[in-house]
Write a structure and sequence with these properties.
Oligomer: single chain
CATH superfamily: Flavodoxin domain
Helix content: 25-40%
Distance between the termini: 12 Å
CATH topology: Rossmann fold
Largest sheet: 7 strands, mixed
Order of helices and strands: EHHEHHEEHEHEEH
Structural class: alpha/beta
Radius of gyration: 16 Å
CATH architecture: 3-Layer(aba) Sandwich
Number of strands: 7
CATH class: Alpha Beta
Shape: globular
Strand content: 15-25%
Number of helices: 7
Length: 189
């Protein structure tokens, strides 16, 4: 079985990318195939709203989005992490979500399990809004949203790597991954 992790952070080894790795630990232990797409390594332009994808069945923009289209179809589960910018989801990840429109008719994520992670500065820094944005997008794609201990995983960090000092948040990411794994396995039976 296959799991897709998407790190929205444009920083290499950013805190949200680190939390995705912890969330994927349960899948590693069960020998799942893992694909971790990192926005720090990929470029996805915003949607042009040209509707060419509806007419021709393919997006006209030639960038790294094809990795996501392939992974949406390939995966049995998905976990997405975003840093919080301006109290919301980061623009890099929003471009991926908007560009999903090109495959929305075939609904490649329908019926798959998914989880969300948000990392921001300060309490009330937009983490809840970001979790909701990710889960709302997942719901629009037909993904079955899976909680961690309570909802998705939220964390407060300022500097790259800060999350590694927060054992509770690292554990929560592993709980989220474990819960997504359980639901994905049940969906396959």
């Amino acid at each position: 079985m296959n799991v897709l992790g998407i790190s929205g952070t444009p920083r290499a080894n950013g805190n949200s990318a680190i939390l995705i790795e912890y969330a994927l630990n349960s899948f590693k232990k069960e020998n799942w195939n893992i694909k971790h797409l990192k926005m720090s390594e990929l470029t996805v332009q915003p949607c042009k709203a040209c509707d060419n994808c509806l007419n021709v069945g393919k997006c006209v923009i030639n960038d790294d989005m094809h990795f996501f289209y392939e992974a949406f179809d390939w995966c049995d589960a998905i976990i997405i992490a975003s840093p919080v910018y301006s109290r919301n989801i980061c623009s890099q990840l929003l471009s991926v979500m908007d560009r999903h429109y090109a495959v929305s008719k075939i609904r490649p994520l329908q019926g798959k399990a998914g989880g969300a992670i948000a990392v921001g500065r300060g309490t009330g820094g937009g983490q809840a809004i970001t979790i909701n944005a990710i889960y709302n997008w997942m719901l629009s794609c037909g993904v079955i949203c899976v909680p961690g201990e309570l909802n998705g995983v939220t964390a407060i960090t300022s500097d790259p790597g800060d999350i590694l000092k927060q054992e509770k948040r690292l554990r929560q990411a592993e709980v989220l991954g474990g819960n997504v794994l359980k639901v994905a396995k049940k969906l396959k039976h």
